[in-house]
Amino acid sequence: MNEAPVTVLDWVPVDKLYRDYPTRSGAETPCVISREGSNFVFGPYPKNFTLSGYYYAKKDPLETTDNSWYVDNAPDALVYGALMEAALFSKDLEAFNFWKPFFDEAVQTIKTEENEAEVSGGPLAARPQ
Q1: 24 in Cβ contact with 42 (< 8 Å)
Q2: What's the rounded Cα separation, in Å, for the pair 100 and 102?
Q3: 85 to each of 28, 73, 96, 122, how far by Cα in Å?
Q4: Is 34 exposed, middle or buried (0-12, 13-18, 19+ CB in 10 A)?
Q5: Where are the domains of the chain?
Q6: Is residue 34 a contact partner of residue 14, using CB atoms and an 8 Å limit?
Q7: Residue 43 phi, psi dihedral angles, 5° rounding
Q8: Full-prediction pTM beyond 0.70?
Q9: Which tens digit of pLDDT belongs to each residue from 46-59?
């Protein structure tokens, strides 16, 4: 059940909320909100009713981001490319030259697979109209 009037809660730092509303029991309508960890905290302490509202949160990029095409289809090219870049960064030309053929082979494999995918396919079929 929704109660009227609708109240917009002001956001305050959690330390200010606890300083202004130290009593954590009661039966009042909240006018401020803060967050402590993953919980919302209200001041004054709310009476026994259900609060409903909206909030906006950023997505966690590590949990919600889909893999890129390279991670799914060419992880070896990413690894060898990263090793080559690390060798360049550390100015280790010997390591760079060691990893380069592996990287070149991985890139050539990607190109070959892509070219084969473009020209391959099943038998042609005509649909009656």
Answers
A1: no
A2: 5
A3: 61, 20, 8, 41
A4: buried
A5: 1-53, 69-117
A6: yes
A7: -140, 135
A8: no
A9: 877 677 777 766 66
